[in-house]
Design a protein that fits this description.
By secondary structure, the chain is mainly alpha-helical. The chain has a domain of 75 residues. 49% of the residues lie in helices and 8% in strands. The protein contains 4 helices and 4 strands. The model has no long low-confidence stretch (mean pLDDT 81).
């Protein structure tokens, strides 16, 4: 009897469009063909076949890499955007926090909130307002 594993997380399953390729892969491969084939034909007239194939490969490989690369379920463009944003950001980050206990008294009086400083613990360990 045949045994087929079904993944528990179906969000990682990608739909195949044609030739068992995803839509992203079809678009990337078609762009690579549209750029690589003319480069080969133009270079073949002036250079040898081997060198024109190498030039075509140099043109096509970055496109194929960007098409096939995926890390943490994110495509290459998003990782590249994260890397650029990281290098543009400030290198020294200052920790800033706002304490919930340090509030403006005027805002508290308007809202009708009793400040923490007026609160005290009673003998039975419950907070009571004085």
């Amino acid at each position: 009897m045949a045994y087929v594993k079904v993944p528990k997380d179906l969000s990682k399953v990608k739909t195949k469009v044609a030739l068992n390729l995803t839509k992203r892969q079809l678009i990337g491969f078609s762009i690579a063909v549209l750029l690589g084939f003319p480069v080969y034909l133009l270079c073949k007239n002036f250079l040898s076949t081997d060198i024109s194939m190498i030039l075509m490969s140099i043109v096509v490989l970055p496109i194929l890499f960007a098409t096939l690369y995926e890390k943490d379920n994110l495509p290459f463009e998003k990782h590249l955007a994260y890397i650029v944003r990281f290098h543009k950001a400030q290198k020294i980050r200052v920790y800033k926090s706002k304490s919930i206990y340090n509030t403006d008294k005027e805002k508290d009086e308007i809202k009708g909130i009793t400040p923490i400083s007026k609160m005290a613990l009673s003998t039975n360990r419950r907070r009571r307002i004085e």
